[in-house]
Design brief:
The structure is a homodimer.
Chain A (H helix, E strand, L loop, with lengths): L11 H6 L4 E5 L3 H13 L12 E5 L6 H6 L6 H13 L4 E3 L9 H8 L6 H12 L5 E5 L2 H6 L1 H9 L6 E3 L3 H16 L3 H17 L4 E4 L17 E3 H16 L4
Parallel strand pairs in A: 1-2, 1-3, 4-5, 4-6, 6-7
Helix pairs in contact in A: 2-11, 4-5, 6-11, 9-10
């Protein structure tokens, strides 16, 4: 860092300090992390490399399965999540984000353990729901079994914006087991074609039960479901978190 | 790390130790890093998240421009590259790779400063050239001005495989200024459509001068050039390095 080969003013340390370095706690799954990074890049106003937001990423996919842990059929991911978070802090991260909805069941525990500011993916997605709201008050949710069963979205919505009353249209057990869970596993295994078929069926079922907007509340889902395949507006939690990250980093950037 | 919430056997620290953690020194540019990560995921045999290779990534794009530094019109990127490398080591990386060809002009300096094993992107690309070789002995090179002018590819080929005699078809000054350099800047600025037009013209010019195979020796280029657009085989250095990374991580993985 104290190299004498060049002046300090051109070193990455100082340049990066003009931005805030964001840590991305990823790997859940790895392709969802790639999708998230792609969206961060796409949402950054830039002409050159140097305009882009500095990020460090831990994509260490050996984190135990979040849904299995919630159901009590697998070990807790908390230790692994905190370990990845510490790696990011060691690497210089000043803010942590997690492109995985279900991992947010451990959000408070992780934040307590790390002591670093974090953005919450559900807050980012809900901001897009409020923006699109109007007549879209019946919100369908496509998410993992754990995200749905835990009430992660409804509870966060009730806490952060109690004035907005939303009606949640949740997947039935059948829809979860037949379509949504297999679709998520399919994306993780690299098979997006069948996943896409399943997710369209699940979306149609939510719309038939009254959903006038659907939240893609699992970061695997936007890899296999497109707006043009669904008759109501889709809110993409991954995209919402990416935009919030860019906004944070731009604010943290001191005037040059 | 010594949490008592779960048994150590399920912690990410130990699980990850079954693999080797790879550090990706990226951000040059950010979209090329995303493309590289996507290729790493695609080349990993996997059914679940946990099968994937653990990686940590520094995408801190404030690294000074490599070509400007080589031409003496901008500061050296070395300090910034080493700083990003140190972040990755702090985060647990046991091997470093750089998805940027031009940055390999500083490869030896970086390796000396970090003392960590690294894979060389040109070695990975050349292995694909040898594999495709046969009648393909006249190799066209699409790369930055600095990669071309420094002789990075020819020198590495001469050192690492002196028995293989290759003839290199390099871009002319006109082709570099009119097509290749603007295409690379175009990708960095998010404009891949015009970049694609330029790169097809540059490829055609190399083929007309006798190239029977073309190496995409800049990690922006595969984002804007497809095999179907070119009449000779394309070697993608990004893809070659991704495959080499996966191979290294799989070998480093202890039998479970």
């Amino acid at each position: 860092m104290s190299s004498d080969r060049e002046s300090g003013s051109s070193g990455e340390g100082e340049a990066a300090a003009q931005f805030g370095i964001v840590g991305i706690l990823g790997g859940m799954g790895p392709l969802a992390t790639v999708d998230f990074m792609r969206k961060v890049v796409a949402h950054t106003p830039s002409r050159t490399d140097q305009d882009h937001v500095p990020v460090v990423i831990a994509s260490i996919p050996q984190i135990p399965d979040r849904t299995a842990a919630f159901k009590g059929t697998g070990p807790s991911p908390l230790e692994a999540l905190v370990c990845s978070g510490r790696r990011l802090i060691e690497a210089g991260a000043e803010l942590i984000v997690m492109p995985c909805n279900t991992a947010h069941l451990w959000y408070s525990d992780i934040q307590r353990a790390l002591g670093t500011p974090m953005l919450h993916i559900v807050d980012a997605a809900l901001a897009d729901v409020w923006k699109a709201k109007g007549r879209h008050t019946r919100v369908g949710l496509l998410a993992t079994e754990a995200t749905v069963a835990s009430g992660l979205y409804e509870q966060r919505a009730a806490v952060t914006a109690e004035r907005h009353q939303l009606e949640w249209i949740l997947p039935t057990d059948f829809e979860m087991q037949a379509w949504i869970a297999p679709a998520i596993l399919g994306v993780k295994a690299g098979d997006t074609a069948e996943a896409s078929n399943y997710l369209v069926q699940a979306s149609n079922a939510l719309v038939e039960r009254g959903a006038s907007l659907i939240v893609m509340g699992c970061t695997e889902i936007p890899l296999a479901l497109q707006q043009r395949e669904v008759g109501v507006p889709l809110v993409d939690a991954t995209d919402a978190l990416a935009r919030r990250l860019v906004k944070w980093a731009m604010k943290a950037r001191a005037p040059v």
